[in-house]
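Fold this sequence, please.
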Amino acid sequence: MALENSPFVLYSDGKGNIFEDTSLFVTGRSGWEAAPIDPSLFIELPDGGNLYELPGRRGIGIDVETGEMRLCEKGWAVAAFIPPAHTGFYLAAFETSEEAPTLPLFCYTAVGWWDDKFYVPAVRIEQDIRQECAGYDSEVIADGTENLLQAYSHNRLIKHLMENCCRTYHCPAARNFAMGRWECPVPSSPACNANCIGCISFQPQEESIVSTQDRLTFKPTAEEIVEFTVPHLETAPYPIISFGQGCEGEPLLMWETIREAIIEIRKHTSKGSININTNGSKPDAVQKLCEVGLNSIRVSLNSAQKHIYTAYYRPNNYEFEDIVESLRVVRKNGGWASINYFVFPGMTDTMEEYEALRKLIRDTDLSMIQWRNFNIDPDWYLGKIGVTETGDLLGIHQLMDLIREEFPNVKFGYFNPPIERIKGNYTADFAHY
């Protein structure tokens, strides 16, 4: 593999300044190992991407003179956050010192510097523009937030979505809702029946990381849900309402309320799509929801292998087989079934995972894979699930190619599609909306 046009390693001085080391080509991490990156896999860091200093970690590069791997001793390693709609092929490669702190719950994609630009090994997996930075108008969001708070002054969910999600955490879905467009988030459950290692809304006090947002603290009523979702479905372009958000537990624990809400919503409007983002733990509840109008489901999983899934999710009173059945139930009812697939180079692209993913697709008649970057400290994750070796690897890009070739009807993406895509031309260009 010729590396002459590869980007150079980046390092941080610990004071917020980032530099390139032109004596080292950047490498990528898969599992526990660092490896050269094919220059053809690099794209310019997309708008909305960010760079992170990785304290207590030294970047690993390939010496431009000798071709040997060595550490960059000039400063701390650097990683990139790549924005939604993009999937990374390699993690940032580094060596971690014993005193290094655990990294927060973000993605850590390899990044380098070439020709006055930052480059990442990644692909744009989704053309939908719904979470692109350029599309957010702060004045429109501020006005929309205030209007919603006034119009629904007694609605606890609106207060949570606008004050907590939109104003405090700048949640992309909540901001889109404030702008009156596309996918509207509907958090519904303060409780969960899993104990995910990397939960973004709840972490035990004794843990070395903190959750990235506050979890919903109440059980909304069907009336509170219906009050604002019907107007959204009626007026928003390409509207979706989605139960199951990062600021809550498991929505299927509130399936009776959700069922009641769907029934009432469909009394008032037939427009748009009703979706649930879930761990898929209660297939009987999913069936009940399908019977009253649920259009689509997205089930999150870090692996299609039961033992790896279980080690991360640590489920209570459900098993991996239940999530497979939930996907199957939606497809049998004529709905759209996606997986929210946490991509972790070195785990997602093992031969064992590839075979398990193929089986999952066949067993469920899966509609879509949402290739999501796994937001987690790589060392911490592998240590928590007890993985010391990952075996032979395909590479994320080759894995995608193989799945696309064998299952041409399975769509690739990053977001829940609107009903227009589900029922019509999935590949249609929605960039104008």
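Residues 138-151 form the longest helix (14 residues). The radius of gyration is 22 Å.
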